């Protein structure tokens, strides 16, 4: 409200400190609202991550202060009117019911909005969809800022790229059909499209052709990849095609570099942003396309609040902006494939490799190797094939989804296992700097003890196998062969992934050993052998999706072999060769796996046939966490009876890792066929719990249909 308006208002309409009342605002002539009825009130989301203040607060916009929706502001908040950061989610002439206690916006932080109309709506949608605090949703959308609220320096320059290439690519009939189908969606606007293509079938070329059409129309595009490891390779391909129009963002860049790329997208200085999960929020004003490569990957699911599914966010953002989403995979998530089969998604297929030849897959039964007296981690066929590959001058990728040297250290005398004092997980032995034990959750390292802390015995034993140990054993078998290892320990730093992959591509090594970083998306022409050291690791995690994850992982890593014409061979070592996920990975029959896995889900009433709501409580006092969850469980059981037992309560149980950084984690699950009643039921029961208990120092984490059962 303008200063003139306040002066013109009758004194009876002024509250304490001459604050205009609601009646005063309504009684004042429109001319007193500023030029063209400048909005009088800002609806602000205060940047405090606490449920008690998870709402919008009205503030008076002072005369002369330019405040618009999407800008960051500083506002007085709370009893002491301390200055807090906030986000203007809307501006309005309409006052709230009580204007007598309203405060004024203190100042505007930036000369540009950090949120657009589209991303404001997206933040509200995420707030409701993921049962989390609105401020947390906004934080996930905008660039990271410093402790004082300022954005980092943007002095860092965008990496230089080869001018665009005019190389002509001959497309297969299937690629041409897929591109035509996507072009129809771009023209007409329709459902997301699932691009189901076997490994090496040319999905990336489909992306490139489609993006070319989008950029030519004056719009922008986002390409999402599941791993930072894939970024250098895919950036090279896209930069070769689109030159300076391409920018890449990921967590290994400095805050300043990431902020600069964000600003460039906001100002349309680049047309294509490539990156992992968070790149879905690139602030393009004319977004036309979002590509989610390897859409089945769990890395597209945020593990911290808000625990969003990038696929869902991308589809919602496309709906708000009129864009199209392409979900690409050789092994689609089962829920995505179901939606494609029943018409909720469009479906395009690439059934053949560009070079027409899929690799031969050999399942090695390690039980037979043991019976033959081979106690090595490598079977005889595995070693023989690797030797043949190296002799032929070709390259091999060896996969083991566990880093470190030994997976646990124990006392052979009393059985005590060395565990992290901050987290309820085993220490992993790393053979670096004389050897140390490292927690893979909190990162704390301790020296390898010479005596057992429980019984003082000196019989300390290292057990299990990690990528470091595999590297050592391969070096002993092939001492003249150059080896590279790619895992979290070797890829630290901004260019860690790119250096290793670049060296391998340049044939500076013949063998690449790695975790899941090497299992997908990579394309090396001279790799003719892939070896899976231990295929059973992902089978017995306690997650009902373990079979799906195992099939996807094995199929993806197998697809790294024989991509450039030479015959590829894959050797999968397992103690469970008859497990359906392993047996069907041998044939690579996705349709058969889909039907089998879905029959199991149907029989067990698991997603997508029923919905599962995970409720986790965390806090520093385990007894308090358990007590609160027991009360919630009792409330749910009682309410479920009133609802004629349409809800199934499963729990109470510790999380898969029940303590991280001395914070205890317990959970329960609730199942129901219908999503809406399930959500209403869980939220109602939590509300009743909060009415009866303060839940001091406890945090509630809610996840509908979690991709990973924590």
Structure, explained:
This protein is α/β, with parallel strands linked by helices and 710 residues long. Helix content is 31%, strand content 22%. The chain has a seven-stranded parallel β-sheet, sandwiched between helices. A hairpin with a 6-residue loop joins strand 18 (436-438) and strand 19. Helix 3 (117-129) packs across helix 4 (134-141), helix 3 packs antiparallel against helix 9 and helix 15 runs parallel beside helix 16. The longest helix has 21 residues, at 622-642.
Nutshell version of this structure?
The protein is an alpha/beta fold and about 700 residues long. It is built from 19 helices and 28 strands.
Shape: globular
* Gyration radius over CA: 28 Å
SS-based class: alpha/beta
Low-pLDDT stretches: 1-19, 25-35
Sheet with most strands: strand arrangement? 9-10-8-11-12-7-13
Distance between the termini: 51 Å
């Amino acid at each position: 409200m303008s200063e003139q308006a306040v002066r013109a208002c009758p004194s009876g309409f002024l509250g304490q400190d001459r604050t205009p009342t609601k009646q005063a605002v309504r009684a004042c002539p429109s001319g007193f609202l500023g030029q063209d009825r400048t909005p009088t009130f800002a609806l602000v989301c205060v940047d405090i991550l606490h449920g008690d203040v998870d709402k919008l607060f009205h503030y008076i916009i002072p005369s002369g202060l330019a405040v618009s929706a999407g800008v960051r502001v500083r506002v007085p908040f709370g009893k002491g009117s301390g200055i807090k950061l906030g986000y203007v989610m809307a501006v309005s002439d309409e006052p709230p019911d009580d204007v007598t206690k309203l405060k004024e916006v203190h100042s505007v932080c930036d000369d540009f909005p950090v949120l657009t109309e589209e991303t404001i709506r997206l933040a509200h949608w995420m707030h409701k969809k993921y049962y989390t605090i609105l401020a947390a949703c906004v934080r996930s959308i905008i660039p990271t800022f410093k402790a004082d609220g300022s954005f980092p320096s943007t002095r860092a320059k965008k990496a230089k790229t080869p001018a665009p290439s005019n190389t002509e690519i001959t497309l297969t009939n299937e690629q041409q059909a897929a591109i035509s189908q996507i072009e129809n969606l771009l023209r007409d606007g329709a459902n997301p499209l699932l691009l189901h293509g076997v490994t090496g079938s040319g999905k990336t070329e489909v992306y490139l052709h489609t993006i070319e059409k989008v950029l030519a129309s004056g719009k922008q595009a986002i390409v999402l990849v599941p791993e930072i490891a894939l970024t250098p390779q895919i950036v090279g391909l896209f930069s070769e095609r689109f030159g300076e129009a391409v920018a890449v963002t990921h967590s290994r860049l400095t805050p300043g570099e990431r902020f600069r790329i964000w600003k460039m997208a906001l100002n349309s200085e680049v047309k294509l942003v490539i990156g992992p999960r968070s790149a879905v929020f690139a602030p393009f004003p004319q977004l036309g396309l979002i590509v989610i490569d390897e859409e089945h990957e769990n890395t597209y699911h945020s593990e911290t609040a808000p625990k969003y599914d990038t696929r869902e966010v991308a589809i919602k953002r496309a709906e708000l902006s009129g864009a199209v989403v392409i979900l690409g995979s050789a092994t689609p998530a089962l829920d995505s494939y179901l939606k494609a089969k029943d018409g909720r998604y469009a479906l395009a297929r690439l059934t053949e490799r560009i070079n027409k030849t899929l690799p031969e897959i050999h399942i090695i039964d390690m039980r037979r190797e043991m019976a033959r007296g081979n106690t090595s981690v490598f079977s005889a066929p595995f070693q023989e094939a690797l030797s043949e590959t190296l002799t032929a001058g070709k390259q091999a990728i060896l996969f083991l989804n566990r880093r470190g040297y030994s997976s646990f250290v124990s006392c052979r005398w009393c059985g005590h296992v060395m565990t992290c004092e901050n987290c309820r997980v085993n220490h992993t032995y790393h053979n670096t700097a004389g050897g140390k034990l490292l927690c893979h959750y909190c990162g704390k390292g301790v020296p390898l003890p010479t005596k057992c802390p429980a019984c003082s015995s000196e019989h300390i034993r290292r057990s299990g196998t990690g990528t470091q140990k595999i590297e050592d054993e391969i070096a002993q078998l092939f001492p003249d062969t150059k080896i590279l290892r790619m895992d979290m320990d070797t890829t630290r730093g901004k260019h860690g992934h790119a250096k290793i992959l670049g060296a391998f591509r340049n044939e500076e090594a013949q063998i690449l050993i790695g975790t899941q970083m090497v299992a997908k998306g990579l394309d090396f022409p001279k790799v003719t052998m892939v070896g899976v050291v231990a295929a059973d690791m992902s089978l017995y995690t306690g997650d009902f999706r373990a079979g799906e994850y195992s099939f996807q992982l094995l199929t993806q890593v197998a697809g790294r072999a024989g991509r450039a014409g030479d015959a590829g061979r894959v050797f999968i070592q397992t103690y469970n060769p008859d497990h359906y996920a392993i047996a069907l990975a041998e044939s690579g029959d996705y349709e058969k796996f889909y039907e089998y896995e879905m029959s199991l889900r149907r029989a067990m009433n698991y997603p997508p046939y029923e919905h599962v709501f995970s409720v986790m409580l965390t806090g520093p006092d385990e007894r308090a966490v358990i007590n609160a969850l027991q009360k919630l469980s009792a409330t749910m059981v009682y309410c479920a009876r009133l609802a004629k037992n349409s809800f199934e309560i499963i729990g109470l149980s510790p999380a898969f890792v029940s303590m991280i950084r001395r914070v205890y984690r317990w959970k329960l699950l609730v199942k129901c066929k219908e999503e809406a009643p399930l959500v209403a039921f869980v939220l109602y029961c939590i509300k009743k719990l909060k009415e009866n208990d303060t839940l001091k120092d406890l945090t509630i984490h809610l996840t509908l249909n979690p991709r990973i059962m924590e």
